[in-house]
Amino acid sequence: MIRPVSPDPGPRLGPGPEFDRIREIARILGPRARGLGDDCALLPDGDGALAVSTDVSVEGVHFRLDWITPAEAGWRATSAALSDLAAEGAGPIGVLSAITVPQRAADGDLLALSEGIGAAAAAAGAPVVGGDLSTGAAWSIGVTVIGRASRPVTRAGARPGDGLWVTGVLGGARAALEAWRRGDTPRADARRAFAHPEPRIAAGRWLSEHGARAMLDLSDGLAGDAGHLAAASNLRVDLALDAVPVAPAAIAEAERLDLPVQQFAAEGGEDYELLVALPPEFGAADVLEFERDCRVALTRVGSAARGSGVRVKLAGRSLTLRGYDHFR
Amino acid sequence: MIRPVSPDPGPRLGPGPEFDRIREIARILGPRARGLGDDCALLPDGDGALAVSTDVSVEGVHFRLDWITPAEAGWRATSAALSDLAAEGAGPIGVLSAITVPQRAADGDLLALSEGIGAAAAAAGAPVVGGDLSTGAAWSIGVTVIGRASRPVTRAGARPGDGLWVTGVLGGARAALEAWRRGDTPRADARRAFAHPEPRIAAGRWLSEHGARAMLDLSDGLAGDAGHLAAASNLRVDLALDAVPVAPAAIAEAERLDLPVQQFAAEGGEDYELLVALPPEFGAADVLEFERDCRVALTRVGSAARGSGVRVKLAGRSLTLRGYDHFR
Question: What is the reported pLDDT for A324?
């Protein structure tokens, strides 16, 4: 199931300064690294693979504790890591956390944050099996997730002609961020999208069992993540933004910024929905079955073609989308 | 091989504020956590176990970049995590790093640090299989290691009458720290002990295959780590400090502090040697075989008895040792 790893072509990622750094690291590591650039590391295990991912959420970069509570920060960091397992079609078997606690932290904040980690892990059906603690200048939540996949789905298997689909709706997390950044209180649904994302574990497994050819989770924005899929699968992605499913909370925020709401949603990051390439024959009946089984929407937003890069169209016009760069 | 996990008694750790926090977290997590408090999380895998550990090294807490180079910081953080696999008798199969890079970082520092991570992983025979990047106020290196153990050795299996043994020599890392803290340059061997620890992977596997009953790595100081073993194995540990093998660099530093050198060595942390409980019949011929196979010393420093806690004797007198608390 796991492709041969030697010779390793290095990480095939889309453009962006964060990804330039990952490419440089891969170059320095040479043959000492293996399989970098996917949502998870895949290690052969019996008939399938172990999937392992590690994610770090830093106070002031990924979250602020005047925006969300410590328990929400713990939930969010853990769900973001679990989302990488979802994107591989893996089921979680364990969660570890490495938490850095500022000296100024109030009594109880570490416990509240740990409670959020435990709640997110339990919701995904995985126990917390270990961790580490340190002091430091700011809160930092490192989350490592371990899962098993009988048919892991990387970013690399899409073929020209495949449809590109997303789960759920996009733009909710960005709607909350835009509100906080101008000093407002976000709508409850936007706040929930940012603070309490749901990793699409069941959806990822369903898709891996129903022919998904390539998959990743939406953390860098639709255009950025489509760029990763295009680079990894060595093809071009055409996005039809008119079709992008939009979170209701995004509408008013997009109007404030004078942006088409689909563009607002597609440029937002950290929705933790799945972007998946499915074969052309995947149709309406399959969508109904998916939505009945997984209780989340599945919407076709584009297609794969020969070539490279990402082309975006909205209302018949070509468009260049901003990415969402965590590495600011 | 893996003990039943339900009901989980919670982490059985020795005394200390860092360990109080881990106990509190385990209490909050309740049944959502499993098997906390050992060097690694153990997940059933075929006939053996997967061993997974995550460790975070924070600039200004665990290391300073005016003391060691970025490449050394990467080596040290990775070897410290690999040492947890050694302590379980596991062989490493993959390393992941989650690196937080300060905005002020010089070009090249991230690559040098990654080079150190790759070198430590390669020295242990494991590829770097993934990671994450963020910005933040200070350097932070989260390292996750994955290994396999056919006969994992936890901290919990020691029995009254067992001998307590350590690999290598102790006090070298502390000798470097003491020199740096007073503004001096450490001796080369002390610096190497701190900046370039060698995880005892081969020794850990050898010991697990030759009857080791309980094992952990020395990161909290001999007394602190013996306290963890005593708590996990539900017995008392008697340490005979006169026998403690001392790093040559520790001698002059101990004299400066007017401490017996064995006490200086036993109170130092982060030597990343192994502390292992072996059955009473483990004898001189076994030691010779170990030292021939693993190219490192093995020294008996105490024994296990009925009771609880740690008793320390030096030159016939009882002694209370300071621990080494990372969570300062």
Answer: 60
E-strand spans in chain B? 41-45, 48-58, 91-102, 128-136, 140-149, 163-167, 214-217, 236-240, 274-278, 298-305, 309-314, 317-319
Strands (E) in B168-314, as ranges, are 214-217, 236-240, 274-278, 298-305, 309-314
Nearest CA in chain B to A47: B46
Which of B129, B140, B328 lies at the smallest CB-CB distance from A43? B129
Asked if B132 and A54 come within 8 Å (Cβ–Cβ), the reply is yes
DSSP calls for B126-191 = --EEEEEEEEESS-EEEEEEEEEESS---SS---TT-EEEEES-BSHHHHHHHHHHTTPPPPHHHH
Test mutation, A39, A56, A58, A109, chain B, max B CBs within 10 A: A56
pLDDT for position B190: 97
Partner A contacted by B56 (CB < 8 A): yes
Report the C-alpha gap between A193 and A186 in whole angstroms: 10
Q: pTM of this prediction? A: 0.94
**Distance between first and last Cα of chain B:** 36
- Give the minimum alpha-carbon distance from A26 to chain B in angstroms, rounded to a whole number: 9
Q: Are the C-beta atoms of B140 and B133 separated by less than 8 Å?
A: no
Task: Pick left, alpha or beta for residue B16 (phi over 0 → left; psi -120 to 50 → alpha; otherwise beta).
Answer: left
- Tabulate helix, strand, coil % of chain A (nearest 5): 35, 25, 35
Mutual angle of helices A70-88 and A109-123, in 10-degree steps = 30
Q: Is the dihedral of CA A116, A121, A125, A127 positive or negative?
A: negative
Please answer yes or no on whether A56 and B134 come within 8 Å at the CB atom: yes
User: What's the Cα-to-Cα distance from A279 to each of A84, A162, B31, rounded to whole Å?
Assistant: 22, 5, 42
Sheet order of strands, B48-58 included: B41-45, B48-58, B140-149, B91-102, B128-136
The residue assigned the tokens 């039809």 is A240
Residue A230 near residue A236, CB atoms below 8 Å: yes
Q: Is the ipTM of this complex over 0.90?
A: yes
Query: Which residue on chain A is closest to B35 by alpha carbon?
Result: A129
The ranges of chain B with pLDDT < 50 are: 1-7, 327-328
A156 touches B at CB < 8 Å: no
Say whether residue A6 is in contact with chain B using an 8 A CB cutoff. Answer: no
**DSSP for A43-111?**
EEETTEEEEEEEEEEEBTTTB-TTTS-HHHHHHHHHHHHHHHHHHHTPEEEEEEEEEEEETTPPTTHHH
Sites in chain A below the pLDDT cut of 70: 1-9, 323-328
Helices (H) and strands (E) in chain A, counts: 10, 12
Rounded Cα–Cα distance for residues B77 and B195 (Å): 9
Q: Is A144 on the interface with B (CB under 8 A)?
A: yes
Task: Judge whether B94 is closer than 8 Å to chain A, CB to CB.
Answer: yes
Amino acid at B39: D
The DSSP element (H or E) to which A311 belongs, if any, is strand A309-314
User: What pLDDT score does A307 carry?
Assistant: 97
- Amino acid sitting at position B224: G
The B residues from 170 to 209 touching A (CB cutoff 8 Å) are none
> Please, what are the domains in chain B?
40-149 (3.30.1330.10), 163-319 (3.90.650.10)
Residue of B nearest to A57 (CA): B134
